[in-house]
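Sample entry (67 residues):
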Amino acid sequence: MKGTAELVRVKQAMAWIEQQRAIHLKAAMPKGEPVELSAAEARRFAEQLSKLADVLESLQAADAADD
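Predicted structure, serialized as tokens:
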């Protein structure tokens, strides 16, 4: 996982930024079962994912300014 230090995690659902190009998601239990989130956990994950999207936009804007 080559990405930013920003890692969003709720239970086994994770999101991170790879190479300042995209947000990667992984949500599976060790044996491949789906991750189950309560409504509160899903909202927390969505909020954290939104913040990660802000980070990605900032990284891409900074990269564009350097060009």
